[in-house]
């Protein structure tokens, strides 16, 4: 009997761990149930650890089994990523970087990065996916994204985070709002207005920051609507359903009947950060990071 764990062992183990049923796992693997049971017992003997609790009614994972399941899933993810990168290299490219982003990052940061990549590292492929802050964190942790652009105060210890853009906030008012932009004297004026904000689930850091801006002015905003899209927020404001506060960079590219007042005198700033996994093994990630911070 071999004294080493092989990939086939992990494949068999994951099938049972996912199905929690030896017959269904064996059918999934196209092998006999007795043969699968022998492979699992051999694996447990090599590891000197019981991986499954078996009885007549059910199969469940032991604590050791739960740990191995996570480790095995990571191993296969890394193998899949390695195969993908090798295929790109073999096809004449140097690799691919997968980027997650919030819509506001598309105003300047990501287009600038893509142009630099096209100019200096044209053989690196990029893929983009717009996701919420927390979805990006989850995808980067799972090696489904290489980097993400988020607005978060903190991230898990397994990730790096670095600010890439510091922006002011701007107040968004309907074009017909009974106040000229030059008449703005402070947020206290808007205590009775309804506010339209990005959803707290979509961007908790943004939501808390807006709350603090209003708190500094002595009131808690009345939130009438929430959205995850800037265009939706502007459309609601345009139709006199409330007012909004957004990162200033978001105002560009939209043609709507709204007016903006940049809040230069408040202490809060809209920080956009890049996140990436400390143990990311993608060979082209560092090249992208170097270009991102190359001024």
From TrEMBL:
InterPro entries the UniProt entry points to: LysR_HTH_N, LysR_subst-bd, WH-like_DNA-bd_sf, WH_DNA-bd_sf
Q: Which UniProt keywords apply?
A: DNA-binding, Transcription, Transcription regulation
Residue limits of the HTH lysR-type domain? Answer: 5-62
Do you know which SUPFAM superfamilies this protein is assigned to?
Answer: Periplasmic binding protein-like II, Winged helix' DNA-binding domain
**What family does the Swiss-Prot or TrEMBL record give for this protein?**
Belongs to the LysR transcriptional regulatory family.
| Protein name stated in the entry | LysR family transcriptional regulator
Q: Which organism is it from?
A: Maribacter cobaltidurans
Give the organism's phylogenetic lineage.
Bacteria, Pseudomonadati, Bacteroidota, Flavobacteriia, Flavobacteriales
